[in-house]
Specification:
The complex is a heterodimer of chains A (about 170) and B (about 290). Chain A is of the alpha+beta class and about 170 residues long. Chain A contains 5 helices and 5 strands. Chain A folds into 2 domains: about 70 residues, Ubiquitin-like (UB roll), CATH 3.10.20.30; about 70 residues, DNA polymerase, domain 1. In chain A, strand 3 and strand 4 form a beta hairpin. In chain A, helix 2 packs across helix 5. Classes of the chains: A alpha+beta (about 170), B alpha+beta (about 290). The complex binds flavin-adenine dinucleotide and FE2/S2 (inorganic) cluster (2 copies). The site of flavin-adenine dinucleotide has 32 residues of chain B, from strand 2, helix 2, helix 7, helix 8 and strand 10.
Chain lengths: ~170, ~290
């Protein structure tokens, strides 16, 4: 797998390349990467999983949130080499073959998105929350999503969507 | 944005890490949580030639208590673990109070307390908390370990006392001799923002008397500020309206804020006074306060 960055460096020295092995959405992968490659670029350019968005590129917005070993991280602020031996989950891994994940359904039911740019990050942060705490309060949902910015919805419906999904996951939603 | 090119090493032992740092000299950087370093590298404010990633070093992800009550926090302990720590909640409530106020929950999954102390950002919250508690940092280098008091460790804005071939391996919080009380109050523009003003107060109470006090300020000077005179004014007596007012005034006097997009110098100084008084007025009886205000 090759990912190309502009070569802006003055030096003509050799380019350090690392071979890494990792799992993404349950699939095992091998990649050869420059150590400076960001995880977000490995995912979007290398693996062509463009569901992970980049909103700010400055660690503020959370649109690039993915799970590494089950924990949400901002993929624009981690090096791809660091996932060697680890497991990544992105929004593409949420849905099954023919069924949406309850979180995706929840965002649809409760109008949890407008432009949808923040949505993948919101869903991954919410997934980590629900994995740890299947019955969160509204406050706990707001707290867990406080690292994810949305410029459209005013958050109200995002919170409702996550609570909807929590209920469905607990098996009590219709 | 992406960093400039560097060589990357992820050693499996401290000795290996130190010899890599020695090799790299001033052009090498330790990578811990990366939540300060990676953004700086992307902006090319930092362009290290060698990155020594310490995330694979064994045995640094801990918080533990010695028999005498001293608390030790390993270099790979993330903010998120400290936020959930039962040990801190019961033994060092001022730290437990501050942990959830650092950055946002996703950044807290990666960032470390020790990394934050090393980064020495005048707006870093942990440096103030650890300063108020009279903490230390343990460094490991070619000559072995040495312990550095936090006030000497943070040597200026974004500067620490480590030699280029030293790694900070743990933060140490001395055992309280009395009942801990105090707290951390942080004024921020929105969740996840750095402090406009942060105030850490760490008291140790015994029978209604303050037997030790530490006060430190975030974001109101070129570096973390230890408000020693304010703390001194509290030590040896009970908390009274008078001693609280005096400490609040002295702390405001120790602040050296600058007017910027987060607020005017005058406003920030006023908030230092308000926060010190607010924490102290609730601290009687051993209470701990933690709040973000916006
Ligand atoms: C959006 C955002 C908001 C934030 N908000 C806040 C906030 O409100 N309050 C706050 O305090 N912080 C905040 N931070 C910073 C965050 O707390 C960082 O985690 C912390 O400053 C650095 O810790 P780190 O482990 O990520 O260190 P890194 O980024 O890996 O390293 C930072 C520096 O310290 C050095 N270093 C790290 N560990 C060691 C070590 N063990 N030995 C020697 N050198 C070391 C590195 O070489 C580097 O120079 C925020 C960050 C972001 C991205
Ligand atoms: S793109 Fe990573 S936090 Fe905004
Ligand atoms: S739906 Fe547009 S940013 Fe959230």
């Amino acid at each position: 797998m090759t990912i190309v960055y502009d070569d802006t460096s003055e030096d003509t020295g050799s380019v350090p390349i690392r071979r890494i092995k990792f799992t993404i959405n349950g699939k095992k992968k091998i990649a050869e990467v420059e150590p400076r490659l960001l995880l977000s670029h490995l995912i979007r350019r290398g693996l062509e999983l463009t569901g992970t968005h980049m909103g700010c590129d400055t660690t503020n917005c959370g649109a690039c949130t993915v799970l590494v070993d089950g924990k949400p991280v901002k993929s624009c602020t981690m090096l791809a080499v660091q996932v060697d031996g680890h497991e990544i989950s992105t929004v593409e891994g949420l849905a099954g073959q023919s069924e949406l994940h309850p979180l995706q359904e929840g965002f649809k039911q409760e109008h949890g998105l407008q432009c949808g740019f923040c949505t993948p990050g919101m869903m991954m942060a919410a997934k980590a929350l629900l994995d740890e705490n299947p019955s969160p309060t509204e406050d706990e949902v707001r707290w867990a999503l406080s690292g994810n910015l949305c410029r459209c919805t005013g958050y109200q419906n995002i919170v409702k969507s996550v609570l909807w999904a929590a209920e469905k996951l607990r098996g009590s939603a219709e | 944005m992406y960093p400039s090119r560097f060589r990357y090493e992820a050693p499996r032992s401290l000795d290996e890490a130190v010899s890599l740092l020695r090799e790299g000299g001033d052009d090498a950087k330790v990578l811990a949580g990366g939540q300060s370093l990676v953004p700086l590298m992307k902006l090319r404010f930092a362009s290290p030639e060698l990155i020594v990633d310490i995330n694979n070093l064994p045995g640094l992800d801990y918080e533990k208590q010695d028999a005498d009550g001293t608390i030790r926090i390993g270099a790979l302990r993330r903010h998120a673990s400290l936020e959930r720590s039962e040990l801190l909640k019961s033994r060092q409530p001022v730290m437990a109070a501050a942990a959830p106020l650092i950055a946002d929950p996703i950044v807290r999954n990666r960032g470390t307390l020790v990394g934050s102390l090393c980064h020495a950002d005048p707006q870093g919250d942990w440096a103030s908390v650890v300063t108020a508690l009279g903490g230390q940092v343990v460094a490991f280098g070619p000559g072995g370990r040495r312990t550095i008091p936090i006030t000497g460790f943070v040597s200026g804005p974004f500067q620490n006392a480590l030699a280029p071939d030293e790694i900070a391996i743990e933060a140490v919080i001395p055992a309280p001799k009395g009942t801990p009380a105090g707290g951390y109050l942080k004024l921020e523009r929105r969740v996840g923002d750095f402090a406009t003003v942060g105030v850490a107060v760490a008291l140790e109470m015994s029978g209604g008397t303050v037997i030790r006090a530490g006060i430190a300020l975030t974001g109101v000077g070129g570096s973390t500020i230890s408000a020693g005179e304010a703390a001194q004014a509290l030590t040896g007596g009970p908390l009274s309206a008078q001693s609280i007012a005096q400490a609040a005034d002295l702390a405001a006097g120790a602040a050296n804020p600058r007017t910027d997009h987060r607020g005017s110098a005058e406003y920030k100084r006023h908030m230092v006074k308000t926060f010190v008084a607010r924490i102290l007025s609730r601290a009687d009886g051993g209470a701990t306060v933690a709040e973000r205000a916006a």
